[in-house]
């Protein structure tokens, strides 16, 4: 490493904890399981890890999780911006490592969201709170899913996007999940089945919405000097961007534009690549519309052309741009803040470890470049990370 440049940063370990239906464990145990597996995947000793990023568990998330894992980090991050959390945390961790403030940072997540509801330990909620700016919206009763539904309807009105095109997103995600043995739902579905399902929030029927699962995962980032000691091919962090656009719907200037329009542009610029160079995309998909509009905002197609872009299997495993190759939140798993799972799947694909769902690069070999883009809240925040194979 030259003293005149920042250190390069690689993802050196990734792993899933048990996912799907996990009734007899705790979120802390899923954190520990994912962390152990990611460390084993990396081949590095845990003593190298001096940074921890965690959110969503406990009153003092990184403190409590670190104690449970037996870590004493000197760098921590507890950024919580919903589904975009993990891409934003990965960007922060990469910056810290590049600047010499950490050697290796563990990003770890675990949730028993499904099991907790089944056991009566938690219930659904109408909103995240009624203080601050939200106080002016909460009395009208529109829930998180209703806000996504409103945005989808606006896109349909402005650009002629159809229900069938939105349904194609769910159908393709399920087709990708069909060859993923770790996916929770693998049986094929059709456009008609998506359209005829029970209505949740117009225009979203049940299959337009993500599943609810348990699960966890972990990602280990390390400085370039540790890469020779790792067990797997490194996947480098090439560029990242983050953006928040609004907290209330009344302050969202355009329902058809997500914050990925900014975070994606920044990530691609910093990585020195174009959307056309990307071999696969992992996109947060709590609802079908999220996939469609994020593809537009990342620059894979023009604004308003997302509906046509997702037709005819173009985002399938053998399509023009494979998207959510594990089945995504619509079919594989969705235990809460799913953004970290996007990074795990992107790394597995770039390493060539995806089994029957493995996609190819432009030349027919392994893919070279991937993008992971997480969205938080109701399109309130976005984090985008560009990754490249070593």
Topology:
Layout: E1 9-16, H1 27-42, E2 51-53, H2 61-69, E3 75-77, H3 85-98, E4 104-111, H4 113-118, H5 144-159, H6 163-177, H7 191-195, E5 199-201, E6 204-205, E7 215-223, E8 235-244, H8 260-271, E9 280-283, H9 288-297, H10 306-309, H11 328-331, H12 339-351, E10 369-376, E11 381-389
Parallel strand pairs: 2-3, 2-4, 9-10
Antiparallel strand pairs: 1-7, 1-8, 4-7, 5-6, 8-11, 10-11
Keywords:
12 helices; two-stranded antiparallel sheet; Thiolase; Thiolase_C_2; globular; nine-stranded mixed sheet; 390 residues; Thiolase-like; Acetyl-CoA acetyltransferase
Write structural notes for this entry.
The protein has 390 residues and is an alpha/beta fold. Helices cover 32% and strands 17% of the residues. The chain has helices at 27-42, 61-69, 85-98, 113-118, 144-159, 163-177, 191-195, 260-271, 288-297, 306-309, 328-331, 339-351; strands at 9-16, 51-53, 75-77, 104-111, 199-201, 204-205, 215-223, 235-244, 280-283, 369-376, 381-389. The strands form two sheets. It has a nine-stranded mixed sheet, with helices on both faces. Strand 2 (51-53), helix 2 (61-69) and strand 3 (75-77) form a beta-alpha-beta unit. Helix 6 packs across helix 9 (288-297). It comes from Streptomyces pakalii. This is Acetyl-CoA acetyltransferase.
Question: In summary, what is this structure?
Answer:
The chain has 390 residues and is α/β, with parallel strands linked by helices.
């Amino acid at each position: 490493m030259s003293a005149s440049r920042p250190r390069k940063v690689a993802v050196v370990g990734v792993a899933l904890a048990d996912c799907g239906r996990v009734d007899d464990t705790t979120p802390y145990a899923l954190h520990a399981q994912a962390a152990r597996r990611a460390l084993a995947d990396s081949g590095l000793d845990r003593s190298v890890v001096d940074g921890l990023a965690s959110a969503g568990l406990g009153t003092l998330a990184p403190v409590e999780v670190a104690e449970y894992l037996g870590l004493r980090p000197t760098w921590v991050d507890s950024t919580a911006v919903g589904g975009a959390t993990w891409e934003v945390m990965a960007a922060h961790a990469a910056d810290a490592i590049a600047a010499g403030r950490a050697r290796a940072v563990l990003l770890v997540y675990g949730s028993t969201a499904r099991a907790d509801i089944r056991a009566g330990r938690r219930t659904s909620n109408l909103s995240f709170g009624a203080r601050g700016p939200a106080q002016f919206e909460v009395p009208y009763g529109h829930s998180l899913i209703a806000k996504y539904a409103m945005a989808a309807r606006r896109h349909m009105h402005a650009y002629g996007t159809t229900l069938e095109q939105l349904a194609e997103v769910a159908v393709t995600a399920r087709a990708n999940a069909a060859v993923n043995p770790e996916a929770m739902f693998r049986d094929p579905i059709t456009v008609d089945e998506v359209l005829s399902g029970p209505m949740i929030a117009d225009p979203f029927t049940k299959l337009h919405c993500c599943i609810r699962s348990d699960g966890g995962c972990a990602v280990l980032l390390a400085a370039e000097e540790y890469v020779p000691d790792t067990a797997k091919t490194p996947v480098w962090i090439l560029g990242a961007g983050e953006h928040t656009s609004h907290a209330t719907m009344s302050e969202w200037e355009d329902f058809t534009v997500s914050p990925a329009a900014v975070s994606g542009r920044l990530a691609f610029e910093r990585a020195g690549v174009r959307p056309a160079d990307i071999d696969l995309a992992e996109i947060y998909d709590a609802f079908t519309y999220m996939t469609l509009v994020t593809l537009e905002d990342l620059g894979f197609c023009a604004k308003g052309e997302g509906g046509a872009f997702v037709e005819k299997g173009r985002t399938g495993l053998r399509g023009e741009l494979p998207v959510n190759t594990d089945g995504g939140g619509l079919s594989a798993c969705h235990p809460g803040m799913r953004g970290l799972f996007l990074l795990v799947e992107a790394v597995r694909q770039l390493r060539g470890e995806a089994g029957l769902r493995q996609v190819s690069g432009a030349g027919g070999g392994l893919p070279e470049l991937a993008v992971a883009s997480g969205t938080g809240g109701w399109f309130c925040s976005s984090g985008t990370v560009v990754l490249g194979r070593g």
